[in-house]
Amino acid sequence: MPTEDRPRPLRVLVFGAALRAGSANARLASLVARLIADAGATVDHASLREFDMPLYDGDIETADGLPEGALALHGRLETSDAFVISSPEYNASVPGVLKNAVDWVSRVQPQPFKTKHALLVSASPSLMGGNRGLWALRIPLEHLGTRVYPDMFSLARAHEGFTEAGLLADPALQRRLTETVGAFLGLVEADTRYVCLRRRWYEFLGDATGAPVTQRAEG
Ligand SMILES: Cc1cc2nc3c(=O)[nH]c(=O)nc-3n(C[C@H](O)[C@H](O)[C@H](O)COP(=O)(O)O)c2cc1C
């Protein structure tokens, strides 16, 4: 195929959702970023720390509009076909800092989560690997219309889960993560390049679709 006819590589935003420097989720995000790059897609590797923003406050929004961090995250989402979040689990749910970022960015019109695919992964020292937090994270993202990949990946005992080279210490888990990332990219590619369905979502209350707010339709 001539170079000019080749589709551009998929672009995937990948970020860890913990702020601390030694974050296991930052390590997992780096590994996923590597796997995505190895698969031929373009990676935009970020950290939630880059998107500093205050706690959501409707008065701040009215007075000053959206904070720069939220606009920056919105901009990075807009230039991506898909995103991957590696998130810790806090008290069996989504870390407040991540939910706060989703809330701010959801105020942009048209809100950007609606058109994206997402893969959710987590790392935790616990035996659950932070998986309950990912189920909680699905709720706001799916509400916003993100196509959240059905399979998720949670790394248990993350403090001993990585090799010095940044791979997973357990080869079977490393294979599973590689396969999950590959399958996710396959779906994003199919949906991005070979669109045969037009989707419409009416559920997000912030969207001025003119449809009754209780109606959700896919066509
Ligand atoms: C406020 C708070 C709540 C936590 N709740 C959970 C939890 O419900 N389940 C869990 O597996 N780990 C929990 N942890 C432990 C985190 O999984 C652990 O600190 C992990 O290393 C955080 O991810 P990070 O390494 O990317 O910062 C919690 C930690 C904090 C600070």
What is this entry, summarized?
Helices cover 36% and strands 13% of the residues.
Summarize the SSE layout with pairings.
Elements: E1 11-16, H1 24-38, E2 42-47, H2 58-64, H3 68-78, E3 82-86, H4 96-105, E4 117-123, H5 131-143, E5 147-148, E6 153-155, H6 171-193
Parallel strand pairs: 1-2, 1-3, 3-4, 4-5, 4-6
Model description:
The chain has 219 residues and is of the alpha/beta class. It has one domain (8-197): Flavodoxin domain (Rossmann fold). The protein contains 6 helices and 6 strands, in the order βαβααβαβαββα. The protein has helices at 24-38, 58-64, 68-78, 96-105, 131-143, 171-193, and strands at 11-16, 42-47, 82-86, 117-123, 147-148, 153-155. Strands 1, 2, 3, 4, 5 and 6 form a 6-stranded parallel beta sheet that branches. The two termini are 33 Å apart. Mean pLDDT is 91; it is low at 213-219. Flavin mononucleotide binds at residues 18, 20, 23-25, 88-92, 123-126, 128, 130. Flavin mononucleotide (FMN) is lined by residues 18, 20, 23-25, 88-92, 123-126, 128, 130.
